[in-house]
Amino acid sequence: MIAGKTVVYTSGTFDMLHANHIKMIEYARSLGDILIVGVNTDELVESYKSQPIIPFDERIALVKALKYPDIVIPQHSLNHADKVKKLNFDVFVVGDDWAGKYDYLKEQGVDVVYFPYGAGISSTNLKQRIYERYEKLQQEANSHFPNDADTGK
Fold first, then answer.
1. How far apart are CA 61 and CA 45, in angstroms?
2. What is the per-residue pLDDT across 79-110, written as a single tens digit (0 to 9) for each?
3. What CA–CA distances, in Å, run from 132 to 16, 123, 128, 129, 141?
4. Share of the chain above pLDDT 70, in %
5. What is the pTM of this model?
6. Which ranges of the chain would DSSP assign to H, the alpha helix?
7. φ and ψ at 115, to 5 degrees?
8. 53, CA 20 to 30 Å: which among 5, 102, 129, 130?
9. Whether residue 69 has pLDDT greater than 80
10. Molecular function terms in GO for this entry (predicted)?
11. pLDDT of residue 130
């Protein structure tokens, strides 16, 4: 708490920004007076999953453009113990795909909320749908020419 105001921190990769990201950030905003959003750096993301599609500079710019955050910062680590001390946040909100991972923050007096992300939309699902659509388009394009067609080359 800072000056009697509840500080909420949420964070994520926010790759291929989508409706579930917005819902979580909007929900986090509703829990306090000051919302700080951490955006995972490319280096951090690559330490636990594949490289983001959208580069860090673009992802952080997109989150800064949203109306909900008061402050948007780079996030270099998934360990938030030091951030609690530095940012004095009271509430931490993260997607429920991380359920249990941040329970250690409760020992520091932080309320931890695992936001139910909902089915259907995720950056991983979006990437898969794009890949599948690309594969289908490629097959359709290739079916226009028989394998033995003379294309003049």
1. 17
2. 999 999 999 999 999 998 899 999 999 999 99
3. 17, 14, 6, 5, 14
4. 81
5. 0.80
6. 19-30, 42-46, 56-64, 81-87, 123-142
7. -70, 125
8. 102
9. yes
10. choline-phosphate cytidylyltransferase activity; glycerol-3-phosphate cytidylyltransferase activity
11. 59
